[in-house]
Design goal:
6-stranded antiparallel β-barrel; Rossmann fold; elongated; 2 domains
């Protein structure tokens, strides 16, 4: 069973598309331009099928058209640009655009024919399939403009699974960039005082990702919790019980079968948290707050785990311990539609060669193996308070980890790895845990991961997507290291 929660906001991206060609050809070969425009329209449809909004700027076939298109491209609030290499085009159609556009540019050379009919070939047939001809010229000019060589997609226009997968991947990346830019990530409280790796320069976050950190107040959450009605608590409690199992405790004496009191507290704070998110117009939230022992503030901060996990499943990344960096990592994985659960390393199993990965806080329910569990905990280890806590493991199969850390010079760095979520028991402690299997072995993997200077948290998702995340890092100008299995 997969837990399904409606996404709070639809996934979105604005993708610009234009084709390039050479104006000299149009008089020489009547009908050629029209045929190429049909190919451009076919590519536009392929991109739109990925669920993004496309803005088609038509054909750019000389320098004058390129300069005229530049202000329109810049004004369109684009997240990505595909350049459709329709036939040979001089680099004057590209130079000023790659120089001045501040969004990723991907060159797309999709040939209409899988091969020429050599026995009946004509120059016009060649021109209709000259999609790769200008790629070297465009690459060289990009470098001369002080830019990296653009990513390239090479294949056929129809029936090419590899090329279609490349287009889909860049559309997913565009969705990530769309939501990072201008995201409002809420924050209240402070990092746990002793966790030096959690401290983050919030101005640097704006510089690197284009997002804004919104300083919020726990007092507002407490006030909203006081306004929640009994009917709202009852309705939310019913919803929670449909989404979670509530088994009897097993070996851990800190765990209880979910109590009515803890269910009610979790339901109250879930309703209040939704209202809090709306009041501050947030796209994510990181927090940690101790509060006076026994106070309303302490109880409020201690009873957010269920609401956090429901929010994560709805596309709203939320994490404890005030970890803004991992909140962003969770957003990236969510927008790639691969999850984004809050995680750290737990004990290693040296006999079966895996390491438990999980956490005691919010988790992305959409990537749970089976139905997630709620348990009452009589205390939260290392934190104040007690209450309902979420337990599950990730879906069995491939997994991807993204950690965002800070370097000595104040820059951010992506630490990325792939592994497997293996079948088997996890501790029944009211925390998430997954049996993470990593090549070539757990100890070697851990040493390689730790050698990159990570923070102790990371976002955990399903599938193998390290190279996609690395591309996001490249686009953002962030150092990215993939802890590869064969390194």
């Amino acid at each position: 069973m997969t837990t399904t929660v409606t996404r709070r906001k639809p996934l979105a991206a604005n993708v610009g598309i234009f084709g390039v060609g050479l104006d000299v050809y149009w008089d020489q070969f009547p009908g050629l331009e029209e045929a190429l425009m049909d190919y451009l329209d076919a590519f536009d449809r392929q991109v739109r099928a990925q669920g993004v909004t496309t803005i088609n700027f038509g054909m750019i076939d000389n320098a004058h058209a390129a300069y005229a298109a530049l202000p329109r491209l810049k004004a369109a609030n684009l997240d990505l640009v595909f350049v459709d290499m329709l036939t040979y085009a001089t680099s004057s159609t590209f130079g000023v655009l790659i120089r001045d556009l501040d969004v990723p540019v991907v060159l797309v050379a999709l040939q209409p024919l899988s091969h020429l009919d050599y026995a009946h070939a004509t120059i016009e047939m060649q021109l209709k399939n000259d999609n790769v001809c200008s790629l070297p010229e465009f690459a060289g000019v990009a470098v001369r403009m002080g830019k990296p060589v653009p990513p390239m997609i090479i294949g056929t226009l129809e029936g090419d699974e590899r090329a279609e997968a490349d287009v889909a991947e860049w559309c997913r990346i565009a969705r990530v960039l769309h939501d990072l830019k201008g995201a409002r990530i809420g924050h209240f409280g402070h990092p746990i005082e002793a966790m030096l790796d959690m401290h983050t320069d919030q101005t640097a976050l704006t510089a690197a990702f284009g997002l804004h950190v919104v300083q919020t107040e726990l007092d507002d959450l407490v006030r909203l919790a006081c306004e929640v009605t009994d009917d709202q608590i009852a309705a939310q409690s019913t919803q929670i019980l449909t989404m979670f199992d509530t088994p009897d405790p097993q070996s851990d004496p800190l765990t209880l079968r979910l109590t009515e009191e803890d269910l009610g507290s979790a339901a109250r704070m879930t309703v209040a948290l939704d209202a809090f998110v709306e009041a501050y117009d947030l796209d994510g939230l990181a927090y940690y707050y101790r509060g006076e022992p026994g106070s309303e503030r302490e109880r409020a901060a201690a009873n957010l785990i269920v609401g956090n996990s429901l929010l994560c499943a709805s596309g709203f990344p939320m994490c404890g311990e005030s970890d803004l960096k991992t909140c962003i990592a969770m957003l990236i994985l969510d927008r790639l539609e691969i999850g984004g659960s809050f995680a750290e390393f737990h004990p290693v199993d040296f006999e079966e060669d895996f390491v438990l990965v999980g956490h005691d806080g919010p988790h992305h329910l959409a990537v749970a193996e089976g139905k997630p569990v709620l348990r009452s905990l009589t205390k939260y280890h290392g934190k104040p308070g007690a209450g309902a806590s979420v337990e599950f493991k990730l879906k069995e199969g491939p997994i991807t980890m993204l950690g965002i850390t800070s370097t000595y010079d104040g820059r951010f760095k992506f630490v990325i790895a792939e592994g497997e979520s293996a079948a088997g028991l996890i501790p029944a402690t009211g925390n998430t845990n997954t049996r993470g299997v990593f090549k070539p072995d757990a100890v070697t993997f851990l040493k390689r991961w730790l050698a990159e200077g990570p923070t102790h948290h990371f976002a955990l998702g399903i599938g193998h997507h390290a190279q996609t995340i690395r591309k996001i890092g490249e686009v953002l100008g962030i150092e990215s290291v993939v802890v590869t299995r064969d390194r």
